[in-house]
Amino acid sequence: MPSGGRCPDCGSTELVEDSHYSQSQLVCSDCGCVVTEGVLTTTFNDEGNLREVTYSRSTGENEQVSRSEQRGLRRVRDLCRVLQLPSTFEDTAVVYYQQAYQHPGIRAARLQKKEVLVGCCVLVTCRQHNWPLTMGTICALLYADLDMFSGTYMQIVKLLGLDVPSLCLTDLVKTYCSSFKLFQATPSVPAKYVEDKEKMLSRTLQLVELADKTWLVTGRHPLPVITAATFLAWQSLHPADRLTCSLARFCKLANVDLPYPASSRLQELLAVLLKMAEQLAWLQVLKLDKRSVVKHIGDLLQHRHTLLRKAFREGTAELEAQKELQEQGQGQGQGPEEVGSGSLDVSAGKRPASPALLLPPCMLKPPKRVCSTPPVSTVTGDENISDSEIEQYLRTPQEVRDFQRAQAATQAAASGPNPP
Asked: Where does the TFIIB-type domain lie (predicted)?
């Protein structure tokens, strides 16, 4: 019989009640769309108050899955609600968890890995919808090990054949910087430390772009780089009041955790800024250091594209000039150590210093490799061969018979003549 409401697909009001396996359903008679699927009622009181119980909340679904999978599905929904994700994200993450759980390796895994699987399904869903979320955030919520999480994440992507796009760095910067508690005065944040959100975000994005172009982000976790860039952006907007503030205190004021490599990323960013400052005429007369260069970050970012090209061009030309000088010195019978330094002085007698190119940190400071020398072989051929190994050297039946006769003769000689 017709009921109130409209069909979500065609907008028709011709909705009728239908029974499917004793479950009341509301179906559109025009297009056949099932408006309410698997709606149950538990008691007469629920029916009187029109409290509907969906099929997923009934015992019908729970009878088809194990307790471990039920617990994982609840954890997926709980994590999505904690992160305040849209309902469509929650449904997709649940489907991924169900598909992954069908694999025998996942079903028989330890409870710790199944807990990590919950976060992996949520992370995959967020990445596919361009939702800025990092592995570190989920690991902090689940108290999970980052190495185990990353390994499980790659395993799930491969098992399910998922297409996961890379994380958008711009969206991550906007989301992460919005969590800083520096945009309004509070008892814990003095007025001189309060900054406009849009100004700080704009300068942070420019610094992160600079770090990306100079390979400071490649192959690294993005949060330490973003933390260092945010700190420099915040300092450069009002350097007179903020140069004395350290990175650790800044994170404490902003109520965010200080990532361990953030201090190293900060020093690398400052080194890039100093190299760019050498290309500006009005900054060449100043003896800038890693502290004073913060005051001129605005000028450096305004001309960052030109300054980067000049730094690369001059560094490459200097490197080529040194190579040519070394080749000329070697052609005249001089060794590389006799060629001049960076000033192209041939009589200096020192090894030339490499120019400060804007190269990846792994090339500027390569890790030291321990070269282990192979052990010297002392095999002479006179070593004794055990009886268990000698069989490996026998090839023909004649050799086997000769060996048996020799072994019998040796045993007879060792036993000696029989006593009378």
From this structure: 3-36
pLDDT at 120: 92
Cα-atom radius of gyration of the chain, to the nearest Å?
Answer: 36
- Which of these ranges, 24-38, 44-58, 135-149, has the smallest mean pLDDT? 44-58
Residue 334: count of CB within 10 angstroms of its CB: 13
Bridge partners of 19, per DSSP, are 24
pTM: 0.54
Q: How far is it, in rounded angstroms, from Cα 272 to Cα 277? A: 9
CA distances from 283 to 110, 237, 288, 317, 396 (A): 60, 18, 8, 22, 86
Please give the C-alpha separations between residue 365 and each of 268, 311, 350, 369, in angstroms, as whole numbers: 11, 19, 21, 12
**What is the per-residue pLDDT for 256?**
87
Q: What is the 3-state secondary structure (H, E, C) of 148-199?
A: HHHHHHHHHHHHHCCCCCCCCHHHHHHHHHHCCCCCCCECCECHHHCCCHHH
- Using the predicted structure, report yes or no on whether residue 313 has a pLDDT greater than 80: no
Instruction: Please state, in angstroms and rounded to a whole number, the distance separating the CA atoms of residues 63 and 341.
Output: 78
CB 301 within 8 A of CB 207: yes
Sign of torsion over alpha carbons 221, 227, 230, 232: negative
Our measurement of the distance from residue 147's CA atom to the centroid of its chain's CA atoms, rounded to an integer in Å, reads 10
| Relative orientation angle of helices 87-101 and 111-128, to the nearest 10 degrees | 130
* Whether pLDDT at 359 is above 60: yes
**Measured distance CA(191)–CA(369) in Å, rounded:** 50
pLDDT band at 11 (very low <50, low <70, confident <90, very high): confident
Quote the CA–CA distance of 383 and 33 in Å, as a whole number. 86
Query: CA 240, CA 218: separation in Å to the nearest integer?
Result: 33
Closest of 186, 201, 187, 124 to residue 155, by C-alpha: 124
**Of 20-29, 274-283, 335-344, 383-392, which gets the smallest average pLDDT?**
335-344
Quick one: what percent of the chain has pLDDT higher than 70? 70
Contact 365, 359 (CB under 8 A): no
Start-end of H helices in 238-373: 239-242, 247-254, 262-277, 281-284, 297-302, 304-331, 361-364
Evaluate the CA torsion angle 201, 203, 206, 207 in order and state its sign. Answer: negative
Candidates 283, 280, 286, 288; CA nearest to 307 is 280
Average pLDDT score over residue span 26-34: 73
CA-to-CA separations, 107 to 77, 100, 104, 119, in angstroms, rounded: 19, 8, 5, 16
Distance, in Å, from the CA atom of 7 to the CA atom of 27, rounded to the nearest integer, reads 8
Walk across the sheet containing 34-36 and list its strands. 15-20, 23-28, 34-36
